[in-house]
Amino acid sequence: MIKKKGNSVWLGLISGVLLPIMVMALVYMIKFSGYPVAYFKEQLMEMRLFSKYISVCVYPNLGLFFIFIWVNRLLSARGVLMATILLAIVVFILKFSL
User: Fold this and answer.
1) Can you tell me the distance from the alpha carbon of 31 to that of 77, in angstroms, rounded to the nearest whole number?
2) Helix %, strand %, coil % of the chain (to 5)
3) pTM
4) Mapping DSSP to helix (H, G, I), strand (E, B) and coil, where does residue 67 land?
5) Which terminus of the chain faces fewer neighbouring Cβ atoms within 10 Å, N or C?
6) For the residues of 22-64, what is the DSSP string, one character each?
7) What is the rounded distance in angstroms from the CA atom of residue 95 to the CA atom of residue 40?
């Protein structure tokens, strides 16, 4: 098997975790920049919306997954899938612990 450049599980895992974080920051900057981050997080926790906020920010991983599939970077796609499952576990824990 010939190893393609940019085809590794680690690349997919890191990009699959960083993309939702960047989406979270982008949504915060566009919609809620008038509030301090700590206050915004506190309000999300109080209204029990923090796990839903994380869940919505994971949606772009679907696009990243399909991009890796289309360019035949299957190991990277596997890493994105692993990151999405990891974030789903985090959401599950937050949902039932808060």
Assistant:
1) 30
2) 80, 0, 20
3) 0.86
4) helix
5) N
6) HHHHHHHHHHSTTS-HHHHHHHHHHTT-HHHHHHHHTTHHHHH
7) 18
The Cα 17–Cα 22 span in angstroms is 9
- Write the DSSP symbol of residue 73: -
13 within 8 A of 82, measured Cβ to Cβ:
yes
Q: How many residues does the chain have?
A: 98
* C-alpha span between 12 and 67 (Å, rounded): 11
Tens-place pLDDT, residues 24-80: 999 999 998 899 999 998 999 899 898 999 999 999 999 999 999 999 999 999 999
Question: Which tokens hold the place of 60?
Answer: 């772009």
Distance CA 73, CA 7 (A): 5
